[in-house]
């Protein structure tokens, strides 16, 4: 599936917001807008990641200015979707929805989240400085926009990057990281692996679940020109390009730590931080962890680059979330939740959020040379975002069921319990059954992405 920007829709929406802003700019302040909601408590789900800790450190500022109390539960990523779906269905008390790129279609199609137009059309709630075009287009589209409607604002967004131990590479005779996946496998990996010393070239987070399906399996398709589905939503896993990417992953495993199929993000990041591996491809959000002396031994040895290129070029992974308003929440809490979402993702808060350890989706903050010099991940991340991502993980409502299939059979592939070819056949067959039942092949459902 090719990534198609919905620039016209965003531009039209931006024009509408600009009209509201023009009439409202002189008078609007967050404090005055929030006055009717003072004393209201809104609830959210956060993850145990740097971007959420950054938000937590800034929330007291919002609470002091608005009188709105923000509370949150920190839960593991793998439990987040299920927890929220149960909350939506049961009418629970979660007011802010945390929307992963692959949950957007499900949440929006079920009308569990509120289009932001509900709030931006209200001059009492709409910050004149919202500036939707100030978000990276790929992020506003991928994480917030479904079927030409904006539901959420990008939050905790990141590109896949290569983090590496410069000192280990230098000791092995390398002046920088590999530029291509082929170079990583055939040139770097043999010299950086010494299993007898528990030292390995690379770690690819691959734990069964969304980590396996998105961070491991899909990551190896795109650079080789492969994809999960073709233009007609049929499996593309048996294409020469897709097979090449998945076979490459199998070859690379000999240079990864034992038990790599049990590595989640924390294990992958820690393996680099403690000197067990020389390179990882991980989300830019983990830069604060790798630069924290209490969690990482890397110090000045940390290097950051774009992910390696494959035969199809630079095709980095795209990850992250948007914050949206829960449609099941009471109206007053919906509006208070919107004020928080609008504030935490604003251009005004982009620099404080970045300084606190988050990754902003705003373009302006990364144009500051001081920011580029201070945060080594900025340039490769912006390069990745500006270059575009070739293929979102499918964002349709059926993704969670398909992800489970990939998690199961992708793990079996890595463990050698099934060949890459046979595993691809099983995934394709089971995936197409789901899509058939959903109506994608009989014209009952448009091929939304």
What does this molecule look like?
This protein has 449 residues and is α+β, with helices and mostly antiparallel strands. It has a domain at 7-158 and 318-387: Periplasmic binding protein-like II (D-Maltodextrin-Binding Protein, domain 2), CATH 3.40.190. 44% of the residues lie in helices and 13% in strands. It has 19 helices and ten strands. The strands form three sheets. Strands 3, 6, 7, 8, 9 and 10 form a six-stranded mixed sheet that branches. A two-stranded parallel ribbon has the order 1-2. Helix 3 packs across helix 15 (347-355) and helix 10 (210-217) crosses helix 18. The longest helix has 19 residues, at 420-438. 51% of the residues are buried. InterPro entries: Bact_solute-bd_prot1 (IPR050490), SBP (IPR006059). Belongs to the bacterial solute-binding protein 1 family.
Topology:
Layout: H1 7-24, H2 30-34, E1 41-46, H3 50-66, E2 69-74, H4 77-90, E3 96-100, H5 104-109, H6 117-120, H7 137-144, E4 145-146, E5 149-150, E6 152-165, H8 166-171, H9 181-192, E7 200-203, H10 210-217, H11 240-252, H12 265-273, E8 277-283, H13 287-290, E9 302-306, E10 318-325, H14 331-344, H15 347-355, H16 369-374, H17 378-387, H18 399-414, H19 420-438
Parallel strand pairs: 1-2, 7-8
Antiparallel strand pairs: 3-10, 4-5, 6-8, 6-9, 6-10
Helix pairs in contact: 3-15, 10-18, 18-19
Short description:
This protein is of the alpha+beta class.
Write a concise keyword list for the protein shown above.
19 helices; transport; Bact_solute-bd_prot1; D-Maltodextrin-Binding Protein, domain 2; Carbohydrate ABC transporter substrate-binding protein, CUT1 family; 6-stranded mixed β-sheet; 449 residues; alpha+beta
